[in-house]
Amino acid sequence: MSSSTFRTVPRGPGPEPLPADRRSIAEELSRASDSLGRLIRDHIGLARLELKGEARKITTEAMIGLSALPFVLAGIVMMDVALSIGISSWVGGAWAFLIVGAFNLLIAGSLGLYAATKLRQHRRLDALSEELERNTAVAQQVRDRMRRRPPADGVATNTQSL
Asked: What's the CA dihedral at 35, 142, 157, 160 to 10 degrees?
């Protein structure tokens, strides 16, 4: 048997590593759980970075929209007054302002409804959350399988320390 058939487990100074076929199940479980833990930590880190980038983008877009708000409001007020004065020659002053106000409320309600439906559809991180859920399910399955599986080839392990 050549030395290339042996795999070693990285450890600090100590006894010579065992060949791959002689390691205990506890060592393999420990290595698998460490790898799974790193995978989950990496996914959580990725989710944080994506959330941070998404929040920055949404904040920038919102600030651009809010900077236009004073100009829009001033324009709307001037147009409302002009429209009310124009309609007042047909229906009277008070009724003209009531009609223009109702028209503004109708437009505001429809735009608000449109914005609310768009915000509900704004789910860019669904793929990431689904992947995290799949990883959690796989981790649970591996843990359950390892708890049910008896030691192979009569190798005695201390399962209480896991």
From this structure: 90
| Pair 44, 133: CB distance under 8 Å | no
pLDDT in tens, 84-113: 999 988 898 889 889 998 999 999 999 989
DSSP state of 8: -
pLDDT score recorded for residue 106? 92
**E-state strands within the chain:** none
Q: What are the tens digits of pLDDT across the range 16-27?
A: 565 555 567 778
The pTM for the full model equals 0.38
- Whole-angstrom CA distances from 9 to 57, 129, 158 are 44, 33, 19
Angle, helices 69-91 vs 93-121, to 10°: value is: 140
- How confident is the prediction for the chain on average, in pLDDT? 77
Amino acid at 162: L
Residue 2 · residue 19 · CB < 8 Å: no
DSSP state of 151: P
How is residue 157 written in tokens? Answer: 């392990």
